[in-house]
Amino acid sequence: MTALSEINLYTVFQRYARATPDKTLLVVEDERIGYGEFVADTEVIARALVALGVEPGHRVGLILPNSGLWYKLYWAAVRIGAQPVPFDPQIGEWEMARLLDLTEVRVCFAAVRYRQNAILENLLLARQSAPALTHIVVADAPAGDGLLSFEQFLHLAPASSFEVPICPVDETSVLMLACTSGSTGNPKVIVVPHQGFRQSQQDMADALAFGPDDVMLLGMPLYHQGGFGMGLQMVLSGGTVFYQPTFEPVKFLNLIAQYRVTVLQLTATLAKIILSVPDFERYDLSSVRMAYFAGEVLPMEVARVFFEKLGIRVVNIIGSTETATMVIWDSLCDTDVDVNNFRPMSFTAMKILDEAHRDVAVGDVGTLFIHTDALLLEYYKNEAETARRLHGWDGLQWFDTGDLGQRCPDGRIRFVGRVKRAIKRGSNLIYPEEIESFLLTHPDIEAVAVTGQSHELIGEMVVAHIQPRQGCAFTRRDLLAFCRGQLAAYKIPDQIVVVDAIPKDIGKVQFKYLKQN
């Protein structure tokens, strides 16, 4: 294991910029940024942040879609010891006001719009509830109403002879504040450790043997800790990362061939979508050596297409914003069990415990507790949640993931589902993830999300929101025919809702927006 370093993570970019300045670091859409260019631009932004009054420990908000600018702003903040606070660019005014106030963001960089979301308009309203917010920088439009354009912001930077020192870090240093679970009405802000997060991503990069010749194409948004962290694993190895501003399956497949992509980062939904592209066989995937899955339950049928038919190694992980990577399934050594049977990494530890925090017996289901280097320092300004989820045992800190797992005889755990998503239908407890995994194997279903809905007789009924493959119709009769004999009768959805598109942000289902539809 690589020793923890007191050196700021930003120095990784400097090191590669000196060694290979012209090598491509990041590509988003048609924007290609080399390591040397990235460091030069980021240092200008760092000087401008300091000129704007940003100091170590201050919070810098990012409400932007995937872009080179997002990446530069994030790392410029880290360089000077400030803490980036990335927001979902689909965030609404109510959520925005609460999170800006809670995180005490001083400077916020925002796009005018993202899809149908009027980001800037919402931000101007939300800032009335965020007294710490002193400056708003508009990334993609002229300024007005006391705002700064990005060009005006850059002009604040002193001459290049002025050098901003890189902020040192220690075991208590914070890398970022990550906002999550805003849909519950109780937004949680995760304090991510600088050193621990770096160590966890370096360990994962080493375990997967990433190197400078690798090119990773990611299907997750940058604001999401999973997409950001997986990309960082590649950067720590000196490789190249591609992010898409929005997911377009044909473009995704063409990029693989055009740039000789070696690692695909996917969710089960994205995988199903690209496999359903007409004439999929004609796309050149010969450069791809690994499909790296996270974020959703992966059906074994989908995994087999990759490692058996396409000859691509499949790595399936469970991770969380609070822990980074926790457990793994790898087709190089785990094909004797289902893709949702996981084992800990050499640098992680797990426990499966009952409600009294005792080890469960083999075959029983319990809650997954995890220890990793990347374990959150705390939930910001939320002592009760911190105390509820973090536990000190065996000289280590353990995190209550809220994931349910079944202890297997071989030491693995079988992922069952999330505690908070479980549906209580009559006397039966149903895990939506299991039903979603099964329904995704239907050739005419492109994406699916299963939720519970209150019912006066049975408590909750099972509702399947289904996005059919383009050109296909789908009815409850179709669903019943497909499920009969395959699922227990009580698990078959009571109702289906056919939608044009399930709310996703580059692949990962956004349940909070699904509930609004």
Task: Indicate the radius of gyration in whole angstroms.
Answer: 23 Å
- The proportion of strand residues reads 25-35%
Number of domains: 3
Mean pLDDT: 90
Indicate the CATH architecture of the largest domain.
3-Layer(aba) Sandwich
**Largest β sheet strand count, sense and barrel closure:** 14 strands, mixed
Question: Number of DSSP strands?
Answer: 29
* Fourth CATH level, the homologous superfamily of the largest domain: ANL, N-terminal domain
Helix content: 25-40%
CATH topology of the largest domain: Rossmann fold
Question: How would you classify the helix and strand content by structural class?
Answer: alpha/beta
Number of helical segments with 4 or more residues:
15
Task: Assign the CATH class of the largest domain.
Answer: Alpha Beta
Write down the oligomeric state.
Answer: single chain
Uncertain ranges: 1-5
What is the overall shape?
A: globular
Distance between the termini: 47 Å
Describe the structure in brief.
The protein is α/β, with parallel strands linked by helices and 517 residues long. It is 28% helix and 29% strand.
